[in-house]
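[step 3/7] inverse_fold.run input=structure_tokens len=828
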């Protein structure tokens, strides 16, 4: 078991390969596993208590790490000294900083190697404790699975099937070794004859031509049931989980029907950080454009939802009507006044790009020519596919590039109601400091465009922000507050997300776009986009100009190297040579001019109560929609919890109803059935008496048994009815009424089982006796047990378990018959 625990840990550690640029980490991992195993062996050799097993393993692991990474500062080269411990702590800190700075696969610097070896060693300690010392091999799979969760969370590609298969084989080997040791503890296996004939006496040799072997029939049947159930769960359960099979069951959906499908992709912002920190800075795509000006950014995603922690895009529902099919795409929302010109872009994506299911295109695309099943989301103009990838493909995009002027943006006066409701939604848990900051930064700005320009200048010039790729990606709302108010260090994700949020606070519809900058020009009209050109930027909505790009991220050598600030976002200069940023006397709040638009001048005075502010009205009106999933989930949980109680009630009713249903037609009086020598069955009091009244007694006995199990009472199947009644009566000290009722039910069951001439008790009397006994059981136990018997009766769980066991047995029997069918056909 010790050896197999170490082998299983090493096999599962192979799944970490996507995280590292080289394979040297595996050899340090082998040393860490051996150290952890030696610590466990030492603890068991000294017969130390089980809680000391992991301590010994961790102590030997520390010795190994000291020798490998801090031997120069250790006593005698291997004993951890204060200096050695300090060196290890500093090295681990450097490794953590490097892991956050670089995207996977990371270079194997000393700090990262130390973290990898320590992590593998800790997993080895846990596996050794669970599988070897505590004899719990199955739970040992949890720490092994944890090693696969790390690359799955960090890398978009996850872990290859071969690496996962090696780890699975290691875990199965651990389970087999555990089973073999447990069975071997009973001694040699007993052998029996499998093919008929007399069993030989003890010590006698097997008859000639016959073999003796272990009777594995029961174990084989159990194995088949487990295998069938596991395969059924593995195949059927994922089909019931939304998003696991976007192309439908067995891939047969394909999006070719009239139904809709949900589009799922990895977190775009995680992909952004990985692209920005790649060491090779590989080429993502090249393109040729006829745009006379510098080309615009290539957009992949439009993130329109902010949940208080991160920006994501709303769930996309795709149908066959969204296919491109070389058709003209829907017009871009809101673009009606600003001048536009058509741009043709021919793009070639590198063949090394994998899983790019969204196309990078200039905004706003009007026609896309590409092979495959590609679709468009009309609201955001994102181009995506449910089954294809852009890697290695060439395609042509015709797009409408808007050229708004500062005057066009300043003249925008209102927003459509659907834009306001969707793109100004701000969670209520946004800290008040951020709301106050947004209003202070834009103080004195009279128009939405002036507010946006002030926000952009604050991020790029006056706010004291620094572009830093080593900053961890924001995970919580507190990270946003820290970026805006304290650290002021980050990369394009923080800048774009913060400006979009502050714009929404001011009442300006906004979203976060993600894709690539225009890249670097190699010759006239030809541009190259590399992984370092990955970028995120905010898009703000202005009626007449549509969605307009802003650039709050610092550019050039001190920022995003290829980012470009649009000309319409620069402060204008009036005739007197003074910058005109729209500073006017603070306007009074105004309401919407009609039912479909709202004036942006009221935006600076928006607050949470907002009797006139449209975004505040949307927040209050949207509370029900946000609470709906929680309410539905709560109702579903309550329904699931009610299943055992409902099953118990239905079982009780069905059990008694089966005795009171009208009997089926019988032969006329005096007639005899061919297979019976007695008179036809009679019915008395509405109860079938074909069995002499035994059915009512058996039903009452089963009901009493279920009530005993529900109230937590021990039920011994080996007891006779009289012994069971006597034991329950003594155990619970029942009152005379309950004791007599219990005795009458036991007597009825005893007569139904053993008496040849049964005297049937009336059905209603037995039902009354069962109710009396149930009340006595409830009065003899505590309140908690009483409530459990009502709400979560254990007898229902036992009934469901028996039903599943029976279904599994029937399935296994059917499989055996199908397997034996060729043999039977040959015998015929």
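[step 3/7] decode complete -> sequence:
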């Amino acid at each position: 078991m010790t050896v197999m625990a170490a082998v299983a840990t090493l096999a599962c550690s192979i799944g970490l390969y996507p995280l590292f640029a080289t394979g040297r980490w595996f050899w340090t991992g082998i040393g860490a596993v051996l150290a952890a195993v030696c610590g466990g062996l030492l603890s068991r050799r000294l017969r130390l208590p089980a809680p000391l097993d992991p301590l010994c393993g961790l102590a030997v692991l520390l010795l190994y790490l000291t020798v490998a990474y801090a031997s120069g500062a250790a006593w005698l080269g291997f004993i951890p000294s204060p200096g050695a411990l300090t060196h290890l702590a500093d090295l681990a800190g450097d490794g953590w900083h490097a892991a956050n700075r670089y995207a996977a696969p990371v270079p194997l610097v000393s700090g990262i190697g130390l973290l990898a070896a320590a992590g593998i060693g800790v997993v080895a300690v846990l596996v050794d404790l669970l599988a070897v010392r505590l004899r719990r091999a199955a739970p040992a799979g949890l720490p092994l699975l944890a090693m696969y969760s790390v690359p799955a969370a960090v890398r978009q590609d996850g872990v290859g099937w071969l690496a996962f298969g090696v780890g699975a084989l290691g875990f199965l080997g651990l389970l087999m070794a555990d089973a073999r040791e447990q069975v071997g503890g009973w001694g040699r296996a007993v052998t029996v004859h499998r093919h008929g004939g007399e069993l030989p006496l003890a010590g006698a040799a097997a008859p000639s031509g016959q073999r003796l072997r272990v009777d594995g029939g029961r174990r084989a049947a159990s194995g088949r049931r487990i295998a069938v159930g596991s395969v059924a769960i593995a195949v059927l359960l994922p089909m019931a989980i939304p998003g696991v099979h976007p192309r439908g069951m067995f891939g047969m959906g394909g999006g070719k029907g009239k139904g809709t499908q949900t589009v799922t992709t990895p977190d775009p912002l995680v992909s952004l950080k990985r692209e920005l920190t790649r060491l090779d800075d590989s080429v993502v795509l090249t393109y040729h454009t006829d745009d006379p000006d510098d080309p615009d950014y290539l957009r992949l995603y439009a993130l329109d939802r902010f949940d208080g922690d991160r920006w994501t895009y709303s769930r996309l529902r795709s149908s066959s009507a969204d296919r491109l099919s070389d058709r003209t795409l829907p017009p871009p929302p809101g673009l009606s006044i600003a001048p536009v010109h058509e741009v043709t872009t021919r793009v070639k994506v590198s063949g090394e790009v994998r899983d790019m299911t969204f196309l990078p295109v200039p905004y706003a695309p009007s026609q896309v020519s590409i092979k495959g099943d590609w679709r468009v989301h009309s609201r955001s103009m994102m181009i995506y596919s449910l089954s294809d990838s852009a890697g290695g493909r060439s395609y042509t995009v015709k797009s409408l590039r808007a050229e708004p002027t500062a005057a066009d943006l300043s003249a925008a006066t209102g927003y459509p109601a659907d834009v306001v409701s969707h793109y100004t939604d701000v969670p209520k848990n946004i800290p008040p400091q951020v709301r106050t900051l947004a209003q202070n930064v834009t103080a004195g700005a009279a128009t939405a465009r002036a507010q946006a320009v002030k926000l952009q200048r604050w991020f790029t010039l006056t706010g004291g922000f620094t572009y830093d790729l080593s900053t961890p990606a924001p995970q919580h709302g507190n990270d946003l507050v820290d970026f805006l108010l304290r650290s002021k260090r980050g990369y394009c994700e923080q800048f774009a997300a913060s400006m979009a949020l502050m714009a929404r606070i001011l009442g300006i519809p906004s979203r976060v776009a993600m894709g690539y900058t225009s890249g670097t020009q190699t010759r006239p009209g030809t541009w190259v986009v590399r992984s370092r050109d990955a970028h995120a930027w905010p898009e703000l909505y202005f009626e007449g100009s549509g969605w307009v790009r802003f650039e709050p991220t610092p550019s050039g050598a001190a920022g995003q190297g290829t980012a470009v600030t649009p000309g319409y976002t620069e402060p204008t200069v009036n005739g007197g040579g003074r910058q005109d940023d729209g500073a006017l006397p603070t306007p009074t709040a105004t309401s919407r001019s009609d039912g479909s638009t709202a004036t942006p001048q009221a935006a600076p005075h928006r607050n949470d109560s907002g009797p006139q502010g449209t975004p505040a009205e949307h927040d209050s009106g949207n509370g029900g929609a946000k609470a709906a999933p929680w309410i539905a989930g709560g109702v579903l949980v309550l329904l699931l919890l009610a299943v055992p109680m409902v099953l118990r009630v239905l079982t009780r009713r069905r059990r008694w109803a089966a005795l009171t249903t009208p009997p089926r037609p019988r032969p006329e009086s005096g007639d005899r059935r061919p297979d019976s020598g007695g008179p036809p069955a009679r019915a008395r009091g509405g109860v079938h008496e074909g069995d002499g009244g035994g059915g009512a007694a058996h039903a009452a006995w089963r009901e009493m048994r279920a009530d005993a199990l529900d109230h937590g009472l021990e039920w011994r199947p080996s007891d006779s009815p009289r012994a069971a009644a006597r034991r329950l009566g003594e155990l619970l000290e029942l009152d005379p009424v309950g004791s007599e009722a219990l005795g009458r039910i036991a007597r009825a069951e005893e007569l139904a089982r053993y008496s040849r001439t049964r005297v049937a008790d009336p059905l209603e009397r037995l039902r009354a006796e069962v109710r009396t006994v149930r009340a006595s059981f409830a009065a003899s136990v505590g309140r908690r047990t009483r409530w459990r018997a009502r709400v979560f009766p254990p007898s229902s769980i036992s009934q469901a378990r028996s039903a599943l066991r029976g279904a599994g047995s029937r399935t296994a029997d059917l499989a055996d018959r199908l397997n034996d069918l060729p043999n039977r056909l040959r015998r015929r």
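[step 4/7] annotate
The chain has a mean pLDDT of 77.
The radius of gyration is 37 Å.
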